[in-house]
Amino acid sequence: MELKNSKVLVIGGAGFIGSFVVAELLKEDVAEIIVYDNFARGKKDYLIESLKDERCKIYPIGGDIRETDILNKAMEGIDYVICLSAMWLLHCKDFPRTAFEVNIAGTFNVLESCVNNKIKKLIWSSSASVYGDAVQLPMTEEHPFNNKNFYGATKIAGEAMATAFNDRYGLKVIGLRYMNVYGPHQDQTAAYTGVVPIMLNKIDDNEAPVINGDGSQAYDFIYVADTARCNVQALKSDVDFGFYNVGTQVQTSIKELCELILALKGSNLKVTYKPYSADDARSLVQNRIGSVVKAEKELGFKYKYSLKEGLMRLIDWRDKNNS
Asked: Which regions of the chain does DSSP assign to beta strands (E)?
C-alpha cells in the first residue's frame, strides 16, 4: 500500500499500543493522522511528542466506537484506519455486557463505517486470546480456538465479522493477534493492568513479588514498539486480508520473567508463591507462544527488542515518570 499523502484514522490512538502506532506512522510520508479516542484509558500525555508534528491531530468531538454517527463523520475523507479500541481481558471478565457492546458491537460499527466511507484498508487488533491454552507450540495461525473467557470470545466474534465484511463487501482488513504486549504507556496502577507492571509495582514498594502457581506457566512477551511497527508494516503490505500472530516465538516462564525483573532492578527480594484461586485455575492459560513465520513471510515483520531490552526501556520510562 502507498501511504504517501494519505490520511489515517487511528482509533484508540491515545492508548497503550495506539500512541506508539501514531508515533510509528509519523515516520511515514503521510499527510495527516487523526487520533479517535474516548480517553477512557488513553491519555493526551502519551501523544505530547506526536502532537508537535502538525500532521497529527486529535478528533475534536470525542471518539467512542459505540457512537456510529460520530465514527462515520470521523472517517470522511480518510484513506486508512487502524483500530486498537477494546476493553481488556480482566475488564471483560467483570463486565461482560459492556464487553459485548464495546468489543463486538463496536467492532461491527468500525467495519460498517469503513465500508460506508470506502476505506482502502483496515488494520484491526485481535488477540492471541482466541487460541486459549496451547495444544501445540509454537502456535501457528491455524491453531484451534480454545478460548474460554469473554475477552477471547469478543475477539473471535470480531474476526468472524471481519471475515464476513471482507467476503460480502470486499473490505481489506488485517487482524493482528497480539501475544503478551508490555512497555511504556501500559496502565501501571489500575486493577486490570498486566503482570509486568504488577511485579514492578511490588518491587518498587519493596514488597515481595507474588507468583500464582509454581511459575512454570510460559508466555510470549513482545515490546509495545515492536507491536506498533507491525501495525504499520501490515498497513503498508500488499496483503488484503488475513490474521497474523504478533510475537517473538520466545518462551518465557513467569518465574523467569520475575527473576529477570528482580535482576534488572538490583533487588534481593524473595518471590512469594501462592495457589491459584478456583476461579482463575478454571480458565488459566498455561502456555501461549506464537509462531512468527507467517507474519515474517507475508508482512515482513520481525521483532527487534529482546525481553531484557524491552524491560530496561520500561523501567527507565517508569523511573523518569516517578521522578
From this structure: 7-11, 32-36, 56-58, 80-83, 121-125, 173-178, 180-182, 210-212, 218-219, 221-223, 241-246, 252-253, 272-274, 287-288
User: Which pLDDT score is estimated for 193?
Assistant: 74
Q: 3-state DSSP: the chain helix, strand, coil percent, rounded to 5?
A: 45, 15, 40
- 314-322: long-range pairs with CB below 8 Å, 24+: 314/182, 314/183, 314/184, 314/196, 314/200, 315/200, 315/264, 315/265, 317/183, 317/184, 318/184, 318/188, 318/200, 318/204, 322/204
Cα(73)–Cα(269) distance, integer angstroms: 53
Quote the CA–CA distance of 95 and 100 in Å, as a whole number. 9
Over residues 258-316, the pLDDT tens digits come to 999 999 999 999 999 988 777 666 667 889 999 999 999 999 999 999 999 999 999 99
CA distance 123 to 121: 7
pLDDT digits (tens, 9 = 90+) for 69-95: 999 999 999 999 999 999 888 889 899
Domains of the chain, each with CATH number or no CATH: 7-181+222-247+290-303 (3.40.50.720)
Quick count: other Cβ atoms within 10 Å of Cβ 306? Answer: 13
pLDDT at 191: 64
